[in-house]
């Protein structure tokens, strides 16, 4: 029944304009009130409105012509931030088209019956609503549909011409935004009913987590002379400090020759630099989520994304460490994969899923297996219990400096004084106090 209602709702929103919805609602209301024609005149309004809808329906039977559609979607988008979707429409007909509209379409988000039965209510509701399951069904639809259906008018389309236009889309959350194409709509002259033609053009956009502004955080760390882990340029954190000038040796790179000194002395002289490796940090993300901490988990991912962007441009290397409760293994981002491009790490954060409450053991095991001391660990935790206290203690015992960020509504009484408590809904205010 819910599935049939969703099909009707999707069809009616495509076929009727806002004014058409108003006339349709008035027709239904007048039909209910005008049953007794001896005591009310509502049947006259019903006759007028139903005739209006009938004429509009007949005038709106002419479908738009078949057009060519190509959606040029960006590779990345950010949750909660609008972005422009480029559309290319090609009219191969002999006649120009005016007054058309275009509506962005997405794949069918309806869950199957098994997924619906296994789902849980997104919030605490009464027994009657739990038994009906309407809120569960609506929540599953919302989870699979990551943006609204956008409908905008199209400029005039010339005959045998090409039209470029943009749609502004705002994704709800991180993850993937799937597009199936767009429907070209032609309203009737009265603007009540629309004829539609679907144009297929699949597209996929990775929606990155929301990011917060971070102050300049002075994290403890030291430069390590580790061969093979120098960053390739200054933008990614490379720092070659000038030491002195010396005579040229066979094999020295030509760009390091000091040409002015060469002209003065008459012999080649090269600059000598002291190469420095960048400090490495571990971004430890607690993804062991209980049912009442889903919102805090999303905030934790946004905090991790904010550090990923800030630290990647701040002369350091960053590894991501998290628990995977389904496989019982932990994953750490290799330096070669995530050290030079924050986009790769943000893409990983966009697809992270919450694990079970027992997933903290593999996370601790992975933290114990770190091959070498790190400059520091940024631990983004969702709770402060015995397991997490032991995890932080193990990291501190290995010699790493641990910066604790606890995302929770209440600050535990035994939380260390140097730990930072961040309240969901006021994350940016708490991050501004970091130093």
Please give the structural blueprint.
Elements: H1 2-15, H2 18-33, H3 42-59, E1 68-72, E2 76-78, E3 83-91, E4 101-105, H4 113-118, H5 127-132, H6 134-144, E5 151-153, E6 161-169, E7 175-187, E8 194-208, E9 239-247, H7 259-265, E10 269-276, E11 280-285, H8 294-312, E12 317-324, E13 329-332, H9 335-338, H10 342-350, H11 360-368, E14 376-381, H12 386-397, E15 402-407, E16 420-422, H13 427-431
Parallel strand pairs: 2-8, 11-12, 11-14, 14-15, 15-16
Antiparallel strand pairs: 1-3, 3-6, 4-5, 4-7, 7-8, 9-10, 12-13
Helix pairs in contact: 2-3, 8-10, 11-12
Descriptive tags:
single chain, 26% strand, 6-stranded mixed β-sheet, alpha/beta, 435 residues, 16 strands, 5-stranded mixed β-sheet, Immunoglobulin-like, flat
Write up what this structure looks like.
The structure is a single chain. With 435 residues, the chain is an alpha/beta fold. It has four domains: 17-59, no CATH class; 68-109 and 145-208, Immunoglobulins (Immunoglobulin-like), CATH 2.60.40.10; 239-276, no CATH class; 280-431, Rossmann fold, CATH 3.40.50. The protein is built from 13 helices and 16 strands. The protein has helices at 2-15, 18-33, 42-59, 113-118, 127-132, 134-144, 259-265, 294-312, 335-338, 342-350, 360-368, 386-397, 427-431, and strands at residues 68-72, 76-78, 83-91, 101-105, 151-153, 161-169, 175-187, 194-208, 239-247, 269-276, 280-285, 317-324, 329-332, 376-381, 402-407, 420-422. The strands form four sheets. Strands 13-12-11-14-15-16 form a six-stranded mixed sheet, with helices on both faces. Strand 12 (317-324) and strand 13 (329-332) form a beta hairpin. Helix 2 (18-33) runs antiparallel to helix 3 (42-59), helix 8 packs antiparallel against helix 10 (342-350) and helix 11 packs parallel to helix 12 (386-397). The chain is flat, with a radius of gyration of 30 Å. It starts with a helix and ends with a helix. Mean pLDDT is 79; it is low at 222-239 and 324-340.
């Amino acid at each position: 029944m819910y599935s049939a209602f969703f099909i009707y709702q999707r069809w009616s929103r495509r076929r009727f304009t806002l004014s058409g919805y108003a006339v349709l609602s008035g027709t239904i209301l007048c039909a209910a009130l005008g049953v007794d024609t001896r005591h009310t005149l509502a049947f006259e309004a019903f006759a007028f409105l139903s005739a209006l809808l009938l004429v509009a329906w007949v005038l709106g039977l002419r479908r738009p012509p078949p057009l060519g559609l190509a959606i040029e979607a960006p590779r990345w988008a950010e949750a909660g931030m609008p972005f422009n979707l480029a559309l290319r429409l090609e009219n191969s007909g002999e006649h120009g088209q005016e007054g058309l509209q275009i509506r962005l379409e997405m794949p069918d988000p309806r869950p199957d019956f098994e997924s619906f039965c296994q789902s849980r209510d997104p919030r605490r509701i009464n027994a009657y609503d739990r038994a009906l399951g309407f809120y569960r069904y609506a929540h599953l639809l919302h989870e699979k549909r990551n943006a609204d259906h956008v409908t905008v008018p199209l400029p005039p389309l010339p005959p045998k011409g090409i039209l470029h236009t943009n749609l502004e889309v705002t994704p709800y959350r991180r993850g993937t935004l799937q597009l199936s194409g767009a429907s070209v709509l032609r309203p009737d002259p009265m603007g009540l009913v629309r004829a539609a033609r679907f144009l297929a053009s699949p597209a996929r956009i990775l929606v990155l987590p929301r990011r917060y502004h971070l102050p300049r955080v002075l994290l403890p760390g030291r430069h390590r002379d580790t061969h093979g882990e120098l960053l390739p340029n200054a933008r990614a954190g490379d720092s070659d400090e000038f030491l002195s000038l010396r005579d040229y040796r066979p094999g020295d790179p030509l760009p390091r020759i000091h040409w002015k000194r060469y002209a003065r002395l008459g012999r080649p002289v090269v600059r000598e630099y002291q190469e420095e490796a960048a400090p490495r940090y571990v971004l430890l993300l607690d993804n062991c989520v209980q049912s009442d901490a889903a919102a805090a988990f999303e905030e934790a991912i946004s905090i991790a994304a904010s550090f990923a962007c800030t630290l990647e441009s701040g002369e350091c290397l960053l590894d991501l460490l998290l628990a995977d409760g389904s496989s019982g293994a932990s994953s750490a981002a290799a330096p070669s994969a995530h050290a030079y491009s924050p986009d790769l790490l943000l893409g990983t954060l966009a697809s992270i899923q919450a694990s079970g409450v027992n997933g903290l053991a593999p996370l601790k095991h992975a933290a114990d297996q770190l091959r070498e001391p790190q400059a520091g660990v940024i631990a983004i935790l969702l709770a402060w219990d015995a397991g997490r206290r032991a995890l932080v203690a193990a990291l501190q015992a290995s010699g790493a400096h641990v910066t604790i960020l606890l995302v929770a509504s209440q600050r535990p009484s035994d939380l260390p004084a140097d730990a930072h408590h961040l309240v969901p809904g006021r994350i940016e205010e708490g991050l501004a106090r970091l130093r």
